[in-house]
Design brief:
Blueprint (H helix, E strand, L loop, with lengths): L5 E8 L5 H11 L17 H6 L6 E8 L5 E8 L7 H8 L4 E7 L6 H12 L3 E7 L8 H12 L7 E2 L8 H11 L12 E10 L3 E10 L1 E3 L3 E4 L5 E3 L2 E5 L3 E4 L1 E3 L3 E5 L13 E4 L21 E7 L5 H14 L4 E7 L3 E8 L2 H14 L4 E3 L6 E5 L4 E4 L11 E16 L3 H10 L3 E9 L2 E9 H5 L2 H8 L5 E11 L2 E8 L2 E2 L5 E4 L3 H15 L7 E7 L2 E8 L15 H20 L9 H10 L1
Parallel strand pairs: 1-3, 1-4, 4-5, 5-6
Antiparallel strand pairs: 2-3, 7-8, 7-16, 8-15, 9-14, 10-11, 10-16, 12-13, 12-15, 17-19, 17-20, 18-19, 21-22, 21-23, 23-25, 23-26, 24-25, 27-28, 27-29, 27-30, 30-31
Helix pairs in contact: 12-14
Length: 603
């Protein structure tokens, strides 16, 4: 296909605004997928995506399109996630294309992630095609939502398309707009081959498969390739495009989006954001690497440990394979006296953590224990040393601590104006700092706040949905680190500290959080033959406590009548036995992994 006839674009939107459904219709209209093979959310290939009804992974697909004049075009589409925890997937997709379809639900209007993703597309200088979806629904408000879009991106009313991705009405006009407005890809086909890796995955038989956007030149099948950042070399055992399953070709050319089967079994050899070049005649020494993607900064940290100590190596390999398909995942080895060897993992949010945990269990058949999530803190020690603390167990004692700094984020909340008071009260309760309010129209506004990240990631999103009857939406971005009164809270069960439940928290929120955890543990811990004390402490001070009552063996069952002193004697003997159990160290409580998970979810 001529370079001038190639169009690369992606779909960006807030979660549940119909991206995957629109992708289905585009594949159907262009005849990429036969109708008998068609199914809903075709590009959502993971079971988790179908169960939860959300897109987790970006997914490329190539389509062939013929316009009214009979001109044939190659359209490369990338379907992207909409949740704030998967923003890195969106940013990488945008860097591989020249245009973006900005999809807005005509029943809900512009939401927080619509704005966040739009700004990402504008930063990449992409052509924006505004589209209103779900116009077939009775509560659709096309004109009102068009006004919102016009204010947001400064476009004219006639530039906004109104479609129904479910029924297919108006979808063909999107394809016409793509071929007329999105510019063809730049690049020189005469130059040596050069491409950027925007995604990758591991195949048991094919090794590492790299998804690439070709910037210059052409790559033939069975040609030697070199990965510039890692320094590894391999062979293009197979090249091709995704339709959306693999379609092998003889070569991939300038401007195209495709894949390279490297055959490499070393997972670290291929890295997202790396430049892959032709390895023939030492060309790689004269070629400049492409600017990669900015390094993603995790928002949330949690420890992941195998439930069986001998599974450590298998867990490491599973995390390496997940990192291939999820470049935002970060992990480092960690050791815990209670849980053994594991990894301290960095995630973009709580949903991201849940997804990784489920993928480890499903795709790699791992049984794991996840520790309480926390954010990273910066600390200054009295000896002048500066450290980044990712685990509560690393937090220094108060005598060595000079200053602790916690991450703050800018928060945008899109909401109907009826709920402004409820939102302001909620944010104020989470130490939020009000900045300003912008109005789309009389009944809808965007609230701008600065908040501590630890207050946002725990349960803020759920509380926000509850306070606004589900109408508000949220997006956030890291701002800076600010000084704060951070303390380490330890959880003790039967007077033994549980390292997996230790957490770092602001002093003002410690009591509420402590009550939360001890009450959850009381509900979920199995009862013992003795009373179990559950405590939350800061240093030597206990700030919350609960007692889990003991099972009581009925030692009086064998008695039938007689003097009361016989009963008292047996009860006294039982009491002494329980005290002896505790004094001999038999009062330790084994905490099942399900309890850790329940505390984590409630957390």
């Amino acid at each position: 296909m001529e370079q001038s006839k190639i169009r690369n674009f992606c779909i960006i939107a807030h979660i549940d605004h119909g991206k995957s459904t629109l992708a289905d219709r585009l594949l159907e209209i262009t005849g990429t997928i036969e109708k008998r093979k068609m199914k809903q959310q075709l590009l959502d290939t993971m079971d988790l995506e179908r169960e939860r009804g959300i897109t987790i992974k970006l997914q490329p697909a190539r389509m062939e399109y013929k316009d009214k004049d009979g001109n044939e075009y190659q359209l490369n589409l990338i379907d992207t996630p909409g949740h704030v925890d998967f923003t890195y997937e969106v940013s990488r997709s945008l860097a591989a294309v020249e245009g973006a379809i900005l999809l807005v639900d005509s029943t809900q209007g512009v939401q927080a992630q619509t704005i966040a993703n739009l700004y990402l597309a504008i930063d990449q200088d992409l052509t924006i095609i505004p589209v209103l979806n779900k116009t077939d629904l009775p509560n659709s408000e096309v004109e009102r939502r068009a006004e919102e879009l016009m204010k947001l991106i400064g476009c004219k009313r006639e530039e906004i398309l109104a479609v129904s991705a479910k029924t297919g009405v108006g979808v063909d006009r999107i394809l016409e707009r793509v071929v007329t407005q999105v510019p063809p890809p730049q690049g020189n086909k005469q130059d040596p081959f050069r491409a950027i890796i925007f995604d990758s995955k591991y195949d048991e038989f094919k090794g590492v498969v790299a998804y690439v956007r070709v910037v210059d030149g052409e790559l033939q099948k069975n040609e030697r390739v070199h990965f510039m950042a890692t320094g590894h070399s391999g062979e293009s055992l197979e090249v091709g495009c995704l339709k959306p399953s693999y379609l092998a070709l003889d070569s991939i050319k300038t401007g195209e989006i495709g894949y390279i089967v490297t055959g490499l079994k070393d997972i670290e050899a291929v890295r997202v954001g790396d430049t892959v070049v032709s390895d023939s005649e030492n060309q790689n020494k004269s070629i400049k690497a492409l600017p990669g993607y900015k390094e993603v900064r995790p928002m949330v940290y949690a420890g992941i440990f195998p439930s069986e100590g001998n599974e450590y190596e298998r867990l490491r390999e599973a995390l390496m394979k997940l990192k291939l398909s999820d470049a935002s995942l970060q992990f480092d080895p960690e050791h815990s006296t209670a849980l053994g060897f594991g990894f301290r993992c960095g995630f973009l949010g709580i949903l991201h953590l849940e997804i990784i945990k489920e993928r480890l269990e499903r795709e790699h058949d791992m049984e794991i224990i996840t520790t309480t999530p926390s954010v990273a803190y910066e600390v200054s020690l009295t000896n002048g040393e500066e450290k980044v603390i990712k685990s509560p167990l690393e937090f220094p004692e108060s005598s060595r601590l000079q200053e602790a700094r916690e991450p703050w984020v800018t928060v945008d909340i899109v909401t109907p104006t009826d709920y402004l008071g409820a939102i302001m009260a909620l944010v104020q309760d989470r130490r939020g700092v009000y900045k300003n309010t912008e109005y789309f129209e009389e009944t809808r506004a965007v609230l701008h706040y600065e908040m501590p990240l630890s207050s946002v990631i725990v349960d803020f999103h759920d509380k926000l949905k509850s306070a606004t009857a589900g109408y508000a939406s949220l997006s956030y971005e890291l701002l800076e680190y600010r000084s704060g009164k951070i303390v380490r809270m330890d959880i003790l069960v039967a007077e033994d500290a549980v390292p997996a439940l230790a957490t770092l928290i602001h002093e003002s929120e410690a009591y509420r959080h402590a009550r939360y955890i001890v009450e959850t543990l009381k509900e979920t811990l199995p009862r013992q033959m003795f009373v179990v004390k559950i405590q939350a402490s800061i240093g030597a001070k206990v700030i919350a406590s609960e007692r889990l009552s003991a099972y009581r063996k009925d030692v009086l069952a064998k008695l039938y009548g007689g003097d009361r002193s016989r009963k008292d004697k047996l009860l006294k003997k039982q009491k002494k036995g329980k005290e002896r159990m505790l004094s001999m160290g038999k009062g330790k409580v084994e905490i099942p992994s399900e309890t850790f998970i329940k505390v984590l979810r409630r957390n």
